[in-house]
Amino acid sequence: MEGFGNAYPSYVPSERVSCSSKGRNVTYHCYLMELEQHYEYQVSVNDIVLAIRSELDSEIVDTLSGTSFDVKRGKLLVNLRHLEPIQLSPEKVQSCRRFQTTLFRILLNRDVTKLTSVSDDFSLGDNPEIDFLLLPATVKHQRPSNSIIDWKPVLSVPFSSESTCDCKDHACNVRIRNDSVCSCKLENCVVYTPHNGSIYIIYTTDGTKKLNGNSTLNQGLKGITTYKEHFKKRHGIELGFEHQSLLHGRNLFKVENYLLKTRQKTEKKKKKK
Questions:
Q1: Are 185 and 165 in contact (CB under 8 A)?
Q2: Rounded to whole angstroms, how far apart are CA atoms 10 and 8?
Q3: Is residue 229 within a helix (H) or strand (E), and if so which, with residue range?
Q4: Where are the domains of the chain?
Q5: What's the CATH code, domain 173-251?
Q6: Measuring CA to CA, which residue among 155, 205, 157, 156 is closest to residue 183?
Q7: What are the residue boundaries of the PAZ domain, all occurrences included (predicted)?
Q8: Which end of the chain is more exposed for a tag (fewer CB within 10 A), N or C?
């Protein structure tokens, strides 16, 4: 700026400053989304950590705290709590974005062919105002003092069978595509079964250790058969490891916009008045 000399510092808008420099840590403002379910179900909700590069206004935090959603099975309360900021390396941010993108694609598309794309770029962007991360929080009563983010599932994408098994009692090995893995590593994993093109969540391996391909399967009015025969007749496949323990899987949850539904109900009530 001619005429002013060094009286004023140079200024560059934040939108024009690239944050993708390697080795530079980035500050994220964290908020804990505490979820409280008012209904009974086999699967419990888990808290979520919202990490953003621009701090939320205190009024927004206060407004969102105590929000109630009318979900399919009852009510879900959300409380937003401000946490201490964290510093993340570009590599850690890439892992977070890879986890988040993969999870969203699984829930929204339910199509294994859409999980990856050649155009995927998980590096730091240049728009801090819209940069956010949704990450799983650690279990409420088992949270370590150094971190509230559950990094284990975040860093598990992509899945690797080569990592060491950390279970106390080594469970049975499960044959997967071109490899075998300890069944404990498959708990809470998302798996794809090519024989029916479906995606499942393996939420436990304890309850099915006594079941294998030769175990009996009660089909009600259709009679009793074995899992091996069921897969052969139903899907036309031969179980290559019939003595291997079966895993307990669950279908993916259907993603619904309960915020929009709540607004529509409120508008209908206002019109009736």
A1: yes
A2: 7
A3: helix 227-235
A4: 26-154, 173-251
A5: 2.170.260.10
A6: 205
A7: 170-256
A8: C
Query: Length of the chain, please?
Result: 273
Query: 10 Å Cβ neighbour count for 213?
Result: 20
Rounded to two decimals, the pTM is: 0.74
Non-local (6+) Cβ contacts of 175 within 8 A are 240, 241, 244
Question: Distance (Å, rounded) from C-alpha 115 to C-alpha 110?
Answer: 9
pLDDT tens series, the chain, 273 aa: 455 455 544 544 444 444 445 568 999 999 999 999 998 888 888 999 999 998 988 888 888 888 888 888 888 899 999 999 999 998 999 899 989 988 888 888 887 777 766 445 555 555 555 688 999 999 877 777 667 999 988 988 777 766 667 666 656 678 877 778 887 788 888 888 888 888 888 876 665 567 889 999 998 888 999 999 998 998 888 888 888 888 888 888 878 776 666 666 666 666 666
Cα–Cα dist 135/50, whole Å:
7
